Amino acid sequence: xxxxxxxxxxxxxxxxxxxxxxxxxxxxxxxxxxxxxxxxxxxxxxxxxxxxxxxxxxxxxxxxxxxxxxxxxxxxxxxxxxxxxxxxxxxxxxxxxxxxxxxxxxxxxxxxxxxxxxxxxxxxxxx
Length: 127
Known about the structure:
The protein is rod-shaped. With 127 residues, the chain is mainly α. The chain has one domain. The chain has three helices and no strands.
């Protein structure tokens, strides 16, 4: 009889311990899962914010570069035209000061020497 009570008591204690352990394990697992889910959501939100910040920075830089290219497209043709005009003005200014050889005033030896030392092509020299 005492043995039955002891066995029943041990069985009840073991059952209670196993039940309690199972309950705490289940409760602990649920608590850990909830904490993990909370931290994971916080991490995802942080990553989302960083991604949005990087997208904003990229778009901002892209807009700046696009504006620079647009301005370049506007300015380059004007600059090129002004450069062509400046070249023309310089040529017009310098041309009166250039010395050209007067071939009509040269005698035959001077003319031959000039033609021989000129940068003319061979077929042009013969003409």
